[in-house]
Amino acid sequence: MFPLGLLRLPDVKAINVKLLIFLTAAFAIGGTLKSCGVADRLFSLFVPVFPQTFSPAYAAVVLLTVVLLHTVLGSNITTMSVVVPGLMSIGAGVAPPLPLMFLICIAVCSQFLLPFHHVILLLGEGDRCYSTHELLRVGIPHTALMLFAVFLLYLPWWRLLGAL
């Protein structure tokens, strides 16, 4: 891009090196957890908790599992790279794959407590647009709202469409 004149030396100053390191680590953590077997071991602990048929209770266990792991693992990139394969294998033959994948996506994308849970939030906090305390104050009710939305909006809608 430099030879084409699209970037100049002053443009390099806009690069957020800390964010690039964070993203590299987030991608690496997910792959590492999968390749060394930690992800499989982790999900083997969750298998007994899941109901044998897809139901609102099954959806609740999926959501709570994803929220718990997202809170612990941190970034949504890391969480998705670990959770999607694990829960899709647990749910094989029990839960319809499309709604299961959407439940995982909704939980990961809607839940946050701290800035590192989403890159966009991390950028805003880094630019001092808001504090970690403000995110925590908004994130807790937002997570609860996500749970209500799944049961009052998404599951009925998917049932109406015939996906469940």
UniProtKB/TrEMBL annotation:
Top-rank taxon: Bacteria
Segments crossing the lipid bilayer: 15-36, 57-78, 98-123, 135-157
Keywords: Membrane, Transmembrane, Transmembrane helix
Protein name: Citrate transporter-like domain-containing protein
Record organism: Flavonifractor plautii ATCC 29863
